[in-house]
Specification:
The protein is mainly β. It is built from no helices and six strands. The N and C termini lie far apart (38 Å).
Length: 71
């Protein structure tokens, strides 16, 4: 049995003992779609088969990518 997700993700927060440890938002890094963690400031691209797609850009919700560092 394959385990996969098919749907839309608008964000995902992970809490451990009432502490926010991950705060994922969907982003596009160049031509690659993935999730950006606002807590660790790390980009996570697709590591599975298939591809991620994105919707329209949301104004005032932009994350700047510079030299593989995200802010």
């Amino acid at each position: 049995e394959d385990n996969y997700f098919k749907g839309k993700i608008y964000g995902l927060k992970v809490w451990e003992n009432d502490i926010l440890v991950r705060d994922f938002v969907p982003v596009k890094n160049g031509t690659e779609y993935g999730m950006y963690d606002l807590v660790t400031k790390q980009f996570y691209g697709n590591v599975g088969t298939g591809s991620l797609t994105g919707g329209p850009v949301v104004p005032n919700k932009l994350i700047t990518f510079t030299n593989n560092y995200y802010s």
